[in-house]
Design a protein that fits this description.
Elements: E1 7-11, H1 18-29, E2 37-41, H2 51-58, H3 68-76, E3 82-86, H4 92-105, E4 110-115, E5 125-128, H5 141-146, H6 148-160, H7 171-180, H8 185-192, H9 200-212, H10 223-238, H11 241-250, H12 259-266, H13 276-285, E6 290-294, E7 297-301, H14 304-312, H15 316-336, H16 346-355, H17 357-369, H18 374-383, H19 385-390, H20 394-407, H21 413-428, H22 432-449, H23 452-468, H24 472-488, H25 492-505, H26 511-528, H27 531-547, H28 551-567, H29 571-587, H30 591-607, H31 619-633, H32 635-646, H33 650-658
Parallel strand pairs: 1-4, 1-5, 2-3, 3-4
Antiparallel strand pairs: 6-7
Helix pairs in contact: 2-3, 3-4, 3-30, 6-8, 7-9, 8-10, 11-13, 11-14, 12-15, 15-17, 17-18, 18-20, 18-21, 20-21, 21-22, 21-23, 22-23, 23-24, 23-25, 24-25, 25-26, 25-27, 26-27, 27-28, 27-29, 28-29, 29-30, 29-31, 30-31, 30-32, 31-32
């Protein structure tokens, strides 16, 4: 079907295996799409306003324009790829609009969506995912064993009770059991794990008794919806009271949970902290939780249907108390992993925040959804300012900040700091119209409150704004004033980051000063083991070396900076490094290489809504490189090399551009 349609939506009841089927199909088709297959998980996204930004981030795009949709369409415009959007039903209208615009703007794109109902987009084909086939109990043992529902049950049962097989003695019972579960894979898996302690005949009797009892919740009219609900009711009833309580409490976690977080948030009120690990083990044994190994340890997650069930079982008073502990825990995590501190754990901190982003979204939503806690949400969103930039989540960062600023009109420090952070993100997106008035308000508010920290940061962001407005001398002056303000408060980290901005933005205006500042920032980053900061220091020094005419040093520094930025998928930083590597190739007389690297950078610039012709540090170098390369190669050869670079794709681009001279 995917070979004959650009939009295929897999529909079906919860637990029927839509996601599993989509993932399997995507894996099988990966080689058929020149620009790859990308999976975007939407089940953890609860705020529809973040849909476009979430998809852009999942594709690795760095948002530099204020419109994520434009960024997406530009990036996908000439790509032959398959995009899988999983779990669209809770954002149905928004997903439909997004899909329609992407398909209109990207003629070679195909989309595979999963949803409990069709999206309703023109040209959509719908494939209803049926339950697994179930046998008649009167069939022969061989025929019973061939049915998909029985095969799945037998496989999962053998895991729970090694040696279990479908034979003449139990075939009719297994057939009736698979019928009772109506072939729904999730229901079958939940039932099969009971064979650890319960014979299959008793399992069937328990299911019969439970299913014949009046349903407490008949909101879903479809029989198979009721069948899954009944299975979940049954599974919930088989848990101990403490396991039930933990199941419902863990359902608040959108992106999975570590043992540490579960102990901190879910213990208390009849669950002791030391008992959490055993209760989690019990829920894993019952297939309520799925344990996943990650670099940082084990994460526990729930399938969407199981998580939704748990949320329904969570009482309102308990949910409020849980929400307060949840916010406090993730507020602490954000503080612990702040990226504006030059320390040895920067890279690990970034990865931790990236993993926890779905849970951070829930924490922010909790803050902005309850009276009196919006200021806490603003503090969390503001503390993430470096994360929003490096992760390329500028639109999402501004979403949370703007939402909080609307809810906190009063004059307080939370508002003051949110204003300068929002202004900084706006400047990265080229939105001076919004940034400048916010900076004025921030400065007035900071002076009124006597908040020296907010005032120093507002001055720093004003300096960046001056560069964006084409006033580099004023920009350097403001940055120096901001540095003095940071040092007066004893904030060495803020003063250090300020020096990076001065080195990077001032490279064209004052290259010698940039080298001095860049060397200082690099030495400090290396002394503290701050890998993220080190990459930015190398970039600033590379720009200064280029502006001094030392292309050899500029090339070496940009290669090293690009390698570091590639490790964290920093597309914005990587694209700037590629741009300068094209200049250094041109300076060596390697014009075909220069044109090819310019071509590799072109789709990345376009995807980010940015251009080297509009960025102060890049304008002159880009224009000179383009003109010289075109003149030396001739128009036809230049165009051929440029187009070849644009078709390389990111992985081959990195290999080609960052590879050592002679290795390409």
């Amino acid at each position: 079907m995917l070979s004959h349609t650009r939009l295929l939506t897999l529909t079906g009841t919860g637990g029927v295996g839509k996601t599993r089927l989509a993932v399997q199909a995507a894996g099988a088709l990966r080689g058929a799409f020149a620009h790859g297959v990308e999976l975007v998980e939407l089940a953890t996204l609860e705020d529809a306003d973040l849909l476009e930004s979430a998809v852009a981030t999942a594709l690795g795009l760095r948002e530099q324009g204020p419109c994520s949709m434009t960024t997406l369409v530009d990036y996908l415009a000439d790509r032959r790829m398959l995009l899988v959007l999983d779990n669209c039903e809770h954002l149905l209208e928004e997903c439909a609009l997004l899909v329609d615009r992407m398909l209109r703007g990207a003629p070679r794109l195909r989309i595979l969506a999963t949803s409990r109902q069709a999206l309703g987009v023109y040209g959509e084909q719908v494939l209803h995912v049926p339950p697994l086939s179930t046998p008649d109990p009167g069939e022969a043992v061989r025929d019973i064993a061939r049915h998909d529902a029985v095969r799945l049950f037998a496989e999962r049962a053998a895991r729970a009770h090694p040696g279990f097989t479908v034979d003449a003695a139990n075939a009719a019972t297994v057939a009736r059991l698979s019928q009772r579960l109506e072939g729904i894979p999730l229901a079958i898996e939940l039932a099969a794990v009971r064979l650890r302690t319960t014979p299959v005949e008793q399992l069937l009797r328990e299911l019969d008794e439970h299913f014949e009892a009046p349903a407490e919740d008949a909101r879903s009219g479809l029989p198979r919806h009721r069948s899954l609900r009944a299975t979940l009711d049954w599974s919930f009833g088989l848990c101990s009271a403490a396991e039930q309580r933990l199941w419902s409490r863990l359902s608040i976690f959108a992106g999975g949970v570590t043992l540490e977080a579960a102990e901190a948030i879910c213990s208390g009120t009849e669950i002791e902290k030391e008992d959490v690990i055993d209760l989690i083990a019990g829920l894993v044994d019952k297939s309520v939780l799925i344990a996943t190994e990650r670099d940082a340890g084990v994460y526990y997650r729930m399938l969407d249907s199981i998580r939704s069930y748990g949320r329904e079982e969570l009482g309102a008073a308990e949910a409020r108390a849980l929400g307060r502990r949840y916010v406090e825990h993730y507020r602490g995590e954000v503080e612990r992993h702040r990226l504006d501190r030059l320390c040895a754990h920067q890279l690990e901190g970034f990865r931790a925040l990236l993993r926890e982003l779905p849970n951070l979204r829930v924490a922010l939503d909790q803050c902005f959804g309850r009276a009196g806690e919006a200021s806490v949400g603003l503090e969390i969103a503001s503390a993430l300012w470096v994360f929003w930039i490096i992760a390329g989540s500028l639109t999402e960062g501004r979403h949370w900040l703007d939402r909080g600023l609307r809810l906190v009109p009063e004059a307080n420090s939370a508002r003051a700091h949110a204003l300068w952070v929002d202004s900084l993100l706006a400047l990265h997106q080229g939105d001076l119209k919004t940034a400048l008035p916010q900076l004025e308000e921030c400065q007035m508010l900071a002076r009124r409150l006597g908040d020296a920290s907010a005032l120093a940061f507002a001055t720093q962001v004003s300096g960046i704004g001056a560069f964006s407005a084409g006033e580099p001398r004023r920009g350097l002056e403001l940055l120096e004033n901001a540095r003095a303000g940071h040092l007066a408060r004893g904030d060495v980290d803020a003063a250090s980051i300020n020096r990076f901005y001065a080195a990077a933005y001032g490279a064209a205006e004052a290259p010698e000063l940039s080298i001095t500042l860049g060397d200082w920032f690099l030495a400090l980053s290396e002394a503290r083991g701050a890998q993220l900061s080190r990459g930015y220091a190398l970039f600033a020094l590379g720009m200064a070396a280029w502006n001094q005419g030392d292309w050899r040093r500029a090339e070496a520094l940009m290669r090293e900076a690009a390698e570091l930025r590639n490790k964290i998928n920093d597309r914005w930083g990587l694209t700037q490094c590629l741009e300068v590597l094209a200049w250094t190739a041109c300076a060596q007389g390697r014009y075909e290489r220069a044109a090819t690297i310019l071509g590799t950078a072109h789709p990345l610039w376009r995807a980010m809504g940015a251009s080297p012709t509009r960025l102060f540090p890049h304008v002159r170098g880009h224009e000179q490189c383009m003109a010289r390369t075109r003149e030396e190669l001739g128009g036809r050869a230049f165009t051929a090399a440029f187009r070849q670079g644009a078709r390389l794709g990111l992985k081959r681009t990195i290999t080609y551009a960052i590879g050592r001279p002679g290795g390409e």
